[in-house]
């Protein structure tokens, strides 16, 4: 493939890795949070709801700054991580994945939540009277019925994660091969003389990836809903 | 023996306060208008609703006792429930739906085998299908099978026929009756349809506004004129009858009941079959002398034992004794005065029609 230079390929590959890791990290917490938001009845539910959706409305740079404060080498979480486990998140691929995960978290939660609202409480009650305990019901009835929402959320978050810019550059910086994902590489190219070709090619690649992701999410949702007999 | 005592206040001001006992075998029907709390009773027995106060015990096993802080979770109660909307799991085949409860039943729990239930409900051809592709009646039959296969100690049915049109109801009702006979376990059945009472009830609990009006054998309760049952257009006694014999030439079947006999147009049931028919009060007339030269076949000597007011001011119920059996006739006040009717008088009852809720009765055993 001569369309992209090795450096450009590196940015594409890194973007895919970062987006994939971000989804992997946030999927289980997102399912848990969505479940709590839909089924939970406790004070502070609205506050939690607002907190989860914060990355949608706060400038990404502010999210990146917040992560820097928390997970920086002197931050209240970053310092112990570094000291006890030798894990450094700032300026690393893992850090880029974390920043991306935080940014796309509300997207997954929203999709999973929609899926959960489809999962009929009445079916869970029926399952309980048939002898299934809470966890059994969750794994055999609720979770399968949420699957369309979970998959749609994961694919959307993956597609959006490929293009996360502000939080990544603030928290993880713009290091080629480490944290320079597609949008960061595009930004770097536009800042350097003679980078127009690189910028255009990478922009085309991100466009194709995003469209593919969205179409995949839609197709999966339709297919799953047909399987579940929802027309 | 199932014993239930519940007290529960809902935020809207509706309060449930009742206690009843149901025998260990057969169908106990909770009957009442919508909003009387009958579905709430089922939810509390199933463990899906925690009442303010209450105690539920089944054959000595305590499922709920708020005073002793005992409240078994639904899965430990083994009270499989059939809901109005079948609630089949849409992501599983019919086969997996049926086996859902079976897989979770305790080892050693007795009950009919998978193949037996499938044959009983006639759902063998549906096993590979998904619930979305089934008709309403088929779904409800699968739901019945799924509940029975969970090997429950008690079957709960929450208006299982209410969501079906009359054609589908007639399709499912016979399966319900078959299931009742095959299950050999107590069934608590909630409905507001009288034909389901006629077809299925061994024991009847009448509810109104969260309280029990009366409970007992349906034959006894339908003979009472002080209950809301008597205000219905189709009010009348339920009469257990036995097929005595057929006369195919004359096109009639003779039915015996304690104290007398009835004839009806030819029935398919074999002689010796036992069934239940409803004698509607408005289909019974009385005469002070034995009528002659009249087309009515069923003319029985009766004794008037009581005259009770009916819902409409100008009508009354006559309680008529035929041996040990009481039947009801609904006549106008005017007729009572014209004929000079008074308790103790011997009369002739003319029965113009008998209604069979045959659809709900099991097929005769061969």
Describe the structure.
The complex is a heterodimer of chains A (231) and B (366). Chain A is built from 10 helices and no strands. By secondary structure, chain A is an all-alpha fold. Chain A has a single domain, classed as MetI-like fold (Orthogonal Bundle). The radius of gyration of chain A is 20 Å and the shape is globular. The N and C termini of chain A lie far apart (42 Å). The two termini of chain B are 31 Å apart. Chain B has 2 domains: 215 residues, P-loop containing nucleotide triphosphate hydrolases (Rossmann fold); 97 residues, Beta Barrel (OB fold (Dihydrolipoamide Acetyltransferase, E2P)). Chain B is α+β, with helices and mostly antiparallel strands and 366 residues long. Chain B contains 9 helices and 21 strands. Chains A and B meet through helix 6 and helix 7 of A and helix 2 and helix 3 of B.
Head-to-tail CA distance between termini of chain B:
31 Å
Architecture of the largest domain in chain B, according to CATH?
3-Layer(aba) Sandwich
Strand content of chain B: 35-45%
Task: Using the CA coordinates, give the radius of gyration of chain A.
Answer: 20 Å
CATH class value of chain A: Mainly Alpha
Shape annotation of chain B? globular
Quick check: average pLDDT of chain B?
88
Gyration radius of chain B, rounded: 23 Å
* SSE succession of chain A: HHHHHHHHHH
The main sheet of chain B comes to: 6 strands, mixed
Assigned CATH superfamily of the largest domain in chain B: P-loop containing nucleotide triphosphate hydrolases
- Overall pLDDT of chain A, averaged? 89
Alpha-carbon distance between the two ends of chain A: 42 Å
Percent range of helical residues of chain B: 10-25%
Question: Could you give a quick summary of the protein structure above?
Answer:
Chain A has 231 residues and is mainly alpha-helical. In chain A, 77% of the residues lie in helices and 0% in strands.
């Amino acid at each position: 493939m001569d369309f992209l230079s090795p450096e450009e390929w590196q940015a594409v590959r890194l973007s895919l890795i970062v987006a994939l890791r971000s989804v992997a990290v946030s999927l289980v917490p997102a399912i848990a949070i969505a479940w709590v938001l839909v089924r939970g009845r406790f004070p502070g539910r609205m506050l939690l709801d607002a907190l989860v959706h914060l990355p949608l409305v706060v400038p990404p740079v502010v999210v990146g700054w917040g992560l820097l404060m928390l997970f920086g080498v002197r931050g209240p979480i970053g310092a112990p991580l570094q000291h006890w486990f030798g894990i450094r998140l700032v300026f690393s691929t893992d850090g880029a994945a974390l920043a991306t995960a935080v940014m796309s978290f509300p997207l997954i939660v929203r999709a999973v939540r929609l899926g959960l609202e489809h999962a009929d409480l009445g079916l869970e009650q029926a399952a309980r009277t048939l002898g299934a305990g809470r966890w059994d019901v969750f794994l055999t009835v609720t979770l399968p019925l949420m699957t369309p929402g979970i998959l749609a959320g994961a694919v959307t978050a993956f597609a959006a994660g490929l293009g996360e810019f502000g939080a990544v550059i603030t928290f993880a910086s713009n290091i080629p091969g480490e944290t320079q994902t597609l949008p960061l590489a595009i930004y770097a190219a536009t800042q350097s003389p003679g980078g127009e070709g690189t910028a255009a090619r990478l922009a085309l690649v991100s466009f194709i990836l995003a469209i593919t992701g969205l179409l995949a999410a839609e197709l999966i949702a339709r297919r799953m809903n047909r399987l579940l007999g929802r027309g | 023996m199932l014993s239930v005592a519940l007290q529960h206040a809902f935020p809207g001001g509706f309060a449930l306060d009742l206690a009843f006992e149901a025998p260990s075998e057969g169908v106990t029907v909770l009957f009442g208008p919508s909003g009387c709390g009958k579905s709430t009773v089922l939810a509390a027995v199933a463990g899906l609703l925690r009442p303010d106060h209450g105690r539920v015990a089944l054959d000595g096993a305590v499922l709920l006792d708020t005073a002793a802080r005992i409240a078994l979770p639904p899965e430990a109660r083994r009270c499989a429930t059939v809901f109005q909307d079948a609630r089949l799991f849409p992501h599983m085949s019919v086969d997996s739906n049926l086996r859902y409860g079976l897989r979770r039943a305790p080892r050693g729990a007795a009950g009919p085998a998978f193949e037996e239930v499938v044959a009983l409900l006639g759902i063998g051809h549906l096993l590979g299908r998904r619930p979305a592709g089934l008709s309403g009646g088929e779904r409800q039959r699968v739901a019945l099978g799924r509940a029975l296969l969970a090997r429950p100690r008690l079957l709960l049915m929450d208006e299982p026929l209410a969501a079906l049109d009359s054609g589908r109801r007639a399709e499912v009702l016979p399966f319900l009756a078959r299931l009742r006979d095959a299950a050999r376990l107590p069934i608590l059945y909630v409905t507001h349809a009288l034909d389901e009472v006629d077809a299925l009830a061994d024991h009847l609990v009448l509810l109104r506004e969260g309280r029990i009006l009366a409970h007992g054998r349906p034959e006894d309760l339908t003979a009472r004129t002080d209950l809301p049952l008597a205000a219905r257009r189709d009010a009348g006694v339920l009469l257990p009858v036995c097929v005595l014999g057929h006369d195919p030439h004359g096109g009639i079947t003779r039915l015996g009941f304690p104290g007398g006999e009835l004839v009806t147009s030819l029935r398919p049931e074999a002689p010796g079959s036992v069934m239940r028919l409803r004698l509607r009060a408005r289909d019974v007339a009385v005469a002070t002398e034995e009528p002659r030269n009249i087309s009515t076949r069923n003319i029985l000597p009766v004794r008037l034992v009581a005259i009770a007011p009916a819902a409409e001011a100008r009508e009354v119920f006559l309680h008529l004794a035929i041996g040990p059996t009481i039947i009801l006739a609904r006549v106008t006040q005017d007729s009572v005065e014209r004929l000079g009717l008074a308790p103790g008088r011997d009369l002739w009852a003319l029965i113009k029609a008998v209604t069979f809720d045959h659809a709900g009765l099991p097929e005769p055993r061969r």
